[in-house]
Specification:
Blueprint (H helix, E strand, L loop, with lengths): L3 E8 L13 E8 L4 E5 L6 H9 L6 E6 L2 E2 L10 E4 L11 H10 L5 H15 L14 H13 L6 E5 L7 H18 L3 E5 L2 H7 L2 E6 L2 E6 L1 H6 L4 H6 L6 E4 L1 E3 L2 E4 L2 E3 L13 E5 L4 E4 L3 E10 L4 E7 L2 E7 L9 E6 L5 E4 L2 E2 L8
Protein name: sn-glycerol-3-phosphate import ATP-binding protein UgpC
GO molecular function, one term: ATP binding
EC number: 3.6.3.20
Length: 360
């Protein structure tokens, strides 16, 4: 297990990058603490796999350093980094038994059979596969094959980090929750440093203690699941996380007064900086309520998702979602929307520009 540090890391697939747009990874500085559970979250093409390949040693960055416990490993090949990796598709040997699959990484490194048996039995118990140790892997269900693939990554005690690259992509939806819960349980028991790469916000938020959200090769926010939901540092985070995502509405700012169309909006607190640039209001649907007074709107769609109702409205020519408990108005109804002040934030050029507290 190791603390992983990325220092001034940048990467371009071009031989002579000249501008920021030439870099697949913009400058990244971050620390992953020893024993932590982390997720890299973002859409396809955002740089997650590039970063994962750099950490694993499959790719040498154009600039910057990767350090494991302070040791520079930037130029080291994968086999000298003591990394275990679990991929989208289970990497196991179908002709071997479950026991032999779990034992393979240890035997490959010359561990004695007593150590092999101790570790295999411990991991098998954690994975709840003890009763299938003598079963050939070819006869396993897809979720059990992925369990064994996870076990192969966890069985070694000398790994610096275990990396999961979209490990549940091929798993049936009704089994994903079970495997996510098992993976979280495994982390709590073995306390290995784990990095989970995914485009699925549910997977990232349920597994990780800290989530790194990426867009276009840039880290836009690092935080706990609660922090990402409650205070998105960027409009992309607000849009990408949540279902539905944050309402992002254009606004104007004059003499400290924020206007959405003809409606004055009160923000959570003071505006930081000059606010020169594109200004937008951000508020999550969970904090938009139907009220007797407030922002005039017309209901355009009602979606009952079971535990609550999502009411889609039009106001000032823009869509606004509200999460409503109980009875919802009918489509076409004229309503008023109350934007909860302490959850109404200003973004300038995409970045959060307000702080909590009373505005002056």
């Amino acid at each position: 297990m190791a603390k992983i540090t990325l220092s001034k890391l940048r990467h371009s697939y071009l031989p002579n990058p000249k501008s920021s747009s030439d870099y697949a990874l913009k400058e990244i500085d971050l620390d992953w603490q020893d024993g932590g559970a982390y997720a890299l979250l973002g859409p396809s093409g955002c740089g997650k796999s590039t970063l994962l390949n750099i950490i694993s040693g499959l790719l040498t960055p154009s600039e910057g350093q990767i350090l494991f416990d302070g040791k520079d490993v930037t130029k080291l090949p994968p086999d000298q980094r003591n990394i275990a990796q679990v991929f989208q598709f289970p990497v196991i040997y179908d002709t071997m038994t479950v026991y032999d699959n779990l034992a393979f990484p240890l035997r490959n490194r010359g561990r004695d059979e007593a150590t092999v048996e101790r570790r295999v039995m411990a991991i098998a118990e954690m994975l709840e596969v003890t009763d299938m140790l003598n079963v050939r892997a070819a006869n396993l269900s897809p979720d059990n094959k992925q369990k064994i693939s996870m076990g192969r990554g966890l069985v070694r005690e000398d790994v610096n980090v275990v990396m999961f690259d979209e490990p549940l992509t091929v798993i049936d939806p009704h089994l994903k929750w079970k495997l996510r819960s098992k993976l979280k349980e495994l982390h709590q028991r073995v306390r290995a440093t784990m990095i989970y790469v995914t485009h699925d916000q549910t997977e990232a938020l349920t597994f990780a203690d800290q989530v790194v959200v990426m867009e276009l090769g840039q880290v836009v926010q690092i935080g706990t699941p609660v922090e990402l939901f409650e205070r998105p540092a960027h409009t992309f985070v607000g849009h990408f996380i949540g279902s539905p995502g944050m309402n992002i509405l254009p606004c104007t700012l004059q003499a400290g007064v924020v206007q959405f169309g003809t409606h004055t909006v009160t923000l959570e607190g003071p505006i930081q900086g000059a606010a020169d640039g594109k200004t937008e209001i951000g508020i999550r649907p969970e904090f938009v309520a139907l009220a007797d007074t407030g922002l005039p709107a017309t209901v355009t769609k009602v979606s009952d998702v079971g535990r609550h109702v999502i009411v889609e409205c039009q106001s000032q020519g823009h869509k606004i979602n509200a999460v409503v408990e109980g009875t919802a108005p009918e489509v076409g109804a004229d309503v008023h929307l109350d934007l909860k002040r302490e959850q109404t934030r200003l973004y300038v050029d995409g970045w959060l520009a307000t702080e909590p507290g009373e505005r002056t």
